[in-house]
Write a structure and sequence with these properties.
Blueprint (H helix, E strand, L loop, with lengths): L2 H12 L49 E5 L7 E6 H7 L10 H9 L2 E7 L9 E22 L4 E22 L4 E10 L4 E10 L4 E8 L4 E10 L5 E10 L4 E10 L5 E10 L5 E10 L7 E10 L5 E10 L6 E9 L3 H9 L4 H20 L2 H15 L8
Parallel strand pairs: 3-4, 4-5, 5-6, 5-7, 6-8, 7-9, 8-10, 9-11, 10-12, 11-13, 12-14, 13-15, 14-16
Antiparallel strand pairs: 1-4, 2-3
Organism: Nocardioides daedukensis
Pfam families: SUFBD_core
InterPro entries: Fe-S_cluster_assembly_SufBD (IPR055346), SUF_FeS_clus_asmbl_SufBD_core (IPR000825), SUF_FeS_clus_asmbl_SufBD_sf (IPR037284), SUF_FeS_clus_asmbl_SufD (IPR011542)
Length: 394
């Protein structure tokens, strides 16, 4: 850690903020209790459908398989255990504020490590496939993604199959590095996935995180970021599509705990079918030490049929007025009638017009993810989701 970063940390210890957006955490499992649903951070989540993952589920031997689609030269991708695994716990400075997060750090014996060395420029995405085969078996997993100083790389975590998985992903982005992490949740319909992603971004480093959720019965992902020094930038992207009965929840927390840092969050979702429910919580904390920062967060939801519910809650907590800019936007609605009218007036049949509007809604965000190897797959998945319900005029 640089001297400047150490000074920032010291200032934080003196001027500590107890944020209502992010309850105080602990590494001690005994300090945590099982959630009841009355807590602010759990009030939207259907706890009974999580199969105990948030509380006392047994973490069985892994029912998922992990395979690396590719391992570029110089990059280390392997599962480690024992002291090697313990040494990777906390590489993101994570202090869990949930029972399942504390349990994973304390109880799961292995860690999946992706290690990009300093100064490496990895031109092809590092794709790791996590494939489940048994949703009746609950399990926990720890993943450590480490990007050395001044390195550049993209890591894709691709989740498929049937599983009941509680997961902690820690990301350490070294000074001057350019790191991208894509987490694709393309589970089978019976899967449950509860995950926490925590990233620390070094001085003058950039971090892009993309959360993409389509499949699963219940998917909840917490995506957090904070800074180890000034000049760091984080781009938080999200794309999700919920069908009948699905619950998809994305929560992000950006902790501006260093000066002259930046963050930008854009999440887009679509819903269709009876009981489809999406939740987006965008929390940004600007501490007193974080002068000169810029932040903006945006969430857009497109409701395709009746019987859906989209909850969208942006929050800003600002402890200093010496900032370059801060803002948020949230909107949930049906199709843009003007867009439909324009397409219909060009002779395009109504269902096709609606399909084009949905693709247009997502395309800009897909291009910002900027991973050609999965872009085509994402657009195919959107098309498959649309085919499940014939879009009718409202």
């Amino acid at each position: 850690m640089t001297a400047t970063a150490e000074n920032v940390r010291s200032a934080l210890e003196v001027d500590k903020v107890e944020s209502h957006l992010h309850p105080e955490g602990s590494l001690n499992v005994d300090d945590h209790t099982a959630p009841t649903g009355r807590e602010e951070i759990w009030r939207f989540t259907p706890l009974k459908r999580l199969r105990g993952l948030a509380s006392d589920a047994t973490y069985a031997s892994s029912g998922t398989t992990v395979a690396t689609f590719n391992t570029p030269d110089g990059v280390r991708v392997e599962t480690v255990s024992g002291d090697d695994a313990k040494a990777l716990r906390g590489i993101s400075d994570l202090v869990p504020n949930t029972l399942f997060g504390a349990r994973i750090l304390a109880e799961v014996p292995d860690t999946l490590l992706v290690d990009v060395p300093a100064n490496a420029e990895v031109t092809e995405p590092i794709i790791v496939d996590v494939t489940g085969s048994d949703a009746s078996s609950t399990e926990g997993a720890h993943v450590a993604l480490r990007f050395g100083a001044h390195s550049s790389a993209v890591v894709v975590l691709r989740h498929t199959g049937s599983a009941s998985l509680a997961q902690v992903v820690e990301v350490n982005v070294g000074d001057g590095a350019h790191a991208s992490v894509v987490s694709l949740q393309d589970w089978a319909d019976d899967a449950v996935h509860l995950s926490h992603h925590e990233a620390v971004v070094g001085r003058d480093a950039s971090y892009k995180h993309a959360a993409i959720s389509f499949g699963g019965d219940v998917v909840r992902m917490d995506s957090n970021v904070h800074y180890a020094g000034p000049g760091g930038a984080a781009e938080m992207l999200g794309l999700y599509f919920a069908d009948a009965g699905q619950h998809i929840e994305h929560r992000l927390f950006v902790d501006h705990d260093a000066p002259n840092t930046k963050s930008n969050a854009v999440y887009k979702g679509a819903l269709q079918g009876e009981g489809a429910h999406t939740v987006w919580i965008g929390n940004v904390l600007i501490r007193k030490v974080a002068e000169g920062i810029e932040t903006f967060e945006e969430n857009r939801n497109l409701v395709l049929t009746d019987g859906c519910q989209a909850d969208s809650v942006p929050n800003l907590e600002i402890e200093t007025g010496e900032i370059a800019g801060a803002g948020h936007a949230s909107a949930t609605g049906r199709f843009d009638d003007n867009q439909l009218f324009y397409l219909r007036s060009r002779g395009i049949e109504e269902n096709e017009a609606r399909r084009l509007v949905v693709h247009g809604f997502f395309n800009e965000l897909v291009s910002r993810i900027n991973v050609p190897e999965i872009e085509e797959r994402l657009l195919e998945t959107v098309e498959a989701e649309l085919s499940k319900n014939v879009l009718k005029a409202f």
